[in-house]
Each structure stands twice: as structure tokens, then as C-alpha cells.
Design goal:
The chain is mostly helical. The chain is built from six helices and no strands.
């Protein structure tokens, strides 16, 4: 199972992107609404945990719909998708709990951007379109989500 987890780039990518960007989006919406960083972090943590659990169950539903049964690969996909979602969510969450005020939000965005670049390198390394394209795409999606969710909170 562990070997399949580590080789599963699709679910690693999906999980980390889901965790990082959902948490950033939730945090920016809450921050734009005027909540303090601890409240922002708590709201984002709740969303991240729920997303991790739904991604785990979603992998189960999707994979068993295709295979008709539970096997080691289905279990590995569940662990990979749900686990990487929660791990990805930790990236923007940690600054929200350890830094004060605006520094918490800025720290969350900076660590998230760095993590997205690392993820882009990992996913782009074997991609025929190349690493740079993958990194740029991931960052552009992150910027779009950040802008839209911040605007939503500030209505």
C-alpha cells in the first residue's frame, strides 16, 4: 500500500492543491470579513478537516464505482487523497496560529506560494509540458482563488 501511496502523483497533486488552496481561500474570506487570525485559522482548520475527510470518502466512492470492489489500491488512493489534503492544509494554517495580526495572513500566503512552487516542481518533473508550465498554472490558480475569495469576504 505504501508504495502505491508514494507513486500516486494524481492524488498527491489533487490532495495538496485542495488542502492548500481551500484553506487559503477560507482564510482570506474570513480575514476580509474582519475576523482575527485565530478565528480565521480555526474556521480554515474546520474546512480543511472536512475536506480531507470528504476527499478520502470521495476517493473510495469514485474508485469502487470503477473497480466494483475494495482492494489495496483503493485503500492507498483513499489514504493518499485524504492525507495529502490535510497535510497541504497545514501549510497555510500554521502561520495563522503562530503569527500575530496581518503577519499571520501574509505568512500563510508566503508559505502557501512556496509550497505550490514545490508541488509544481514535483508534478511537472515528468510532465511533457514541463516544470515551468506546471508551476505557472498552479500559481495562477492560486492567485485566482485568493483574489475571488478575498473579494467574497469583503463584499
Amino acid at each position: 500500500i505504501l508504495e502505491h501511496v508514494l507513486d500516486n502523483k494524481r492524488y498527491i497533486g489533487l490532495g495538496f492543491i485542495d488542502g492548500i488552496l481551500t484553506t487559503v481561500g477560507t482564510a482570506l474570506t474570513a480575514f476580509a470579513m474582519g475576523l482575527d487570525p485565530l478565528m480565521v485559522g480555526t474556521a480554515a482548520a474546520g474546512g480543511a478537516l472536512a475536506l480531507g475527510l470528504t476527499n478520502t470518502f470521495g476517493s473510495y466512492v469514485g474508485e469502487t464505482a470503477e473497480t466494483g470492489s475494495i482492494n489495496h489500491e483503493v485503500i492507498a488512493d483513499m489514504i493518499t487523497h485524504g492525507g495529502t489534503t490535510v497535510l497541504g492544509a497545514l501549510v497555510p494554517l500554521i502561520p495563522l496560529f503562530v503569527l500575530p495580526g496581518l503577519s499571520a495572513i501574509v505568512g500563510s500566503l508566503v508559505t502557501s506560494l512556496a509550497a505550490l512552487v514545490v508541488l509544481g516542481r514535483f508534478l511537472g518533473k515528468d510532465n511533457p509540458r514541463g516544470t515551468a508550465v506546471t508551476i505557472i498554472e498552479i500559481i495562477l490558480v492560486g492567485i485566482l482563488i485568493s483574489v475571488v475569495t478575498f473579494m467574497l469576504g469583503g463584499h
